[in-house]
UniProtKB/TrEMBL annotation:
Transmembrane feature ranges: 7-28, 34-53, 65-87
Native species: Aureibaculum algae
One cellular-component annotation, GO: plasma membrane
Membrane topology: Multi-pass membrane protein
Pfam families on file: Ion_trans_2, TrkA_C, TrkA_N
Protein name: Potassium channel protein
Amino acid sequence: MNIFKPKLYIALLLFIGVICVGVFGYMYFSDDTFINALYMTIITITTVGFGEVHPLSQSERLFTIFLILMSVLTLGYAASVITQYIASGEFLKNIKTKKVQKTIDKLSGHTIVCGYGRNGKQATVKLIKYKKPFVIIENNEERILEIEEQNLLYIKGDATIDDFLVKAAIDKASSLITALPSDANNLYVVLSARQLNKELTIVSRASNDSSDAKLRIAGANNVIMPDKLGGEHMASLLVTPDIVEFVDKLAADSENATHLEEIVVDNLPKEFLLKSIRDLDLRKKTGCSVIGFKTPDHEYVINPDAETKLVIDSKLIVLGSAKQIQKLNKLF
């Protein structure tokens, strides 16, 4: 669209210019009123064949010939620009972009994923699995083609520019993942996102240890270093292989895998508030086990006591098979 915009504007200005020349020309040569001059100009440009206001003099006829030639050239140029615009696919692409933008504008509580590289792609797979709405901001043409094949919502642009974050409805988003390859760009995104939405949960990718503290100061809630995690994982496979395989099984996506699930206490039925974990009786009702508890002060309790109170702003972490988790979700 950026290529054709100037051409379309030029065609529009030329068309308006022809009308202005025609009006002033007829007012000058025929001493007509503005309305009569405008009428003569329009029927001449559009070649509709309506009768003249009055018989034309020789000078008026010469001016009319000149006006016809000008209008033919101008309309020909406009027609060629519009034809090129439609034939190039920009027209349909522009309509699709507007349609996607309308869909994004309706989102609320969604996640914004900045960058569709290896880490960004893995993040979207997880979000799709948990049916979480998200919008991708990506500028790479090859990755955009891949995103379109997956039929995912996206905005083509640079995530470090505030305008594209605004287009992704950051004011209504609940979280943001920035997985750009450059730590500097991730830092810029975190700074901008935190300014645009104070309540946003931000997770950032980092390559260097020195970037961790900077990203957290800028406003990131969590910082992930994929290379560091990969190295630690490989070493753990040698030191504690059984534990690692067990944890990997928890993260597996197969139907028979064991899963971890998070329960927000605020979303439980009111009769369970201020009751104990024992009162929930999850083991009997669903088969799931409570293995963790997050307090309102964001402290984690491993293997919490059965008498732990279910207070507001706290969370339960439960362990169970896929079928057990399904029962849990239906129950609560």
